Amino acid sequence: MSDPKKGPIPYIDLGGSGKTIHFSHANGYPPECYKPLLSLLSKSYKVLAMMQRPLWQGSEQREIKDWLPFADDLLEFLDERNLESIIAIGHSMGAINSLRAAIRQPERFSVLVLIDPVLFVPKTITARRLLWSDKIMYRYHPLIQAARYRRREFTDLESIFAGYRKKSVFRYFDDPSLLAYVEGITEPKPAGGYRLKYSPEWEMRIYATGIWRDMDIWRNLHKINIPLLVIRGNESDTFLAASANLLKKHVSQARVITIDNSTHLVPMERPIEVNNTIQSYLQENL
């Protein structure tokens, strides 16, 4: 696989001081979407968030066959920044990438916080392996279909906000969180207006290549010997109760906390509650 990046891996620095938190974002959600949460965390910690491959200039989505390279990218980023014993926090795909990196090099991490990770039980992974093919996934995966027809260009941020405010998927977002999301997913166009920062082609590729290689996670979870917190939304359709129960069997010290009135997008829907949960856990375990 060729290396699409030129120079160090790009990232954003949310400021703060003290022990370093690295935050890994989800598919389709650049780090800026999480500013309400990350700004709260930066009051007590130094917060960094690397851009994952879909946000690298010149990256090629067709080279991705599974999610394993994203954990490699995170470890490379830690090397570039000379970061050790960090607090790793990740959401969705970012949670899986952080978990894989911690399994591979557990000494690099002091605490692991997974927010609604894309982690399914082995029988679901096996079914995904049996069914996996680009043709099938691109034709039938509902999230791929949604990304395929997603609007890409806009005249102004106000109209995006007004349109999204009416969508049920954002029902638990307050206005500041929804505005952060709108600003996070867009960038100005040279000729005026705005466009999506995270391409639908990359978003579709991530959906198409997920889950099917994840038995390596279940086989190696015993290597996680650091504090592990998992936060999930009570209406999540991604990190289900069966996965939570199995995770706790594999990692005895794992703590799973469910946030009410939230979905898979819990870090953006409930930034204050998620921050308070993380801060309390870190105070107990650092």
Q: What's the level 1 CATH class?
A: Alpha Beta
CATH architecture: 3-Layer(aba) Sandwich
**Main sheet: strand order:** 1-3-2-4-5-9-10
| CATH H-level homologous superfamily name | Alpha/Beta hydrolase fold, catalytic domain
Mean pLDDT: 95
List the helices and strands and how they pair.
Layout (H helix, E strand, L loop, with lengths): L10 E5 L4 E5 L10 H7 L4 E5 L17 H13 L5 E6 L1 H12 L4 E7 L6 H10 L2 H7 L1 H7 L4 E2 L2 H9 L9 H11 E3 L5 E3 L3 H10 L5 H6 L7 E6 L7 H10 L4 E5 L6 H4 L1 H15 L1
Helix pairs in contact: 1-13, 2-3, 6-9, 7-8
Descriptive overview:
This protein has 13 helices and ten strands. Helix 1 runs parallel beside helix 13 (271-285) and helix 6 runs antiparallel to helix 9. The mean pLDDT is 95. It has a single domain, classed as 3-Layer(aba) Sandwich (Rossmann fold). The relative contact order is 0.16. It is globular and about 50 Å long. The protein is an alpha/beta fold and 286 residues long. The longest helix is centred in the last third of the chain and has 15 residues, at 271-285.
Question: Which terms summarize this structure?
Answer:
alpha/beta, single chain, 13 helices, 3-stranded antiparallel β-sheet, about 290 residues, Rossmann fold, 10 strands, 7-stranded mixed β-sheet
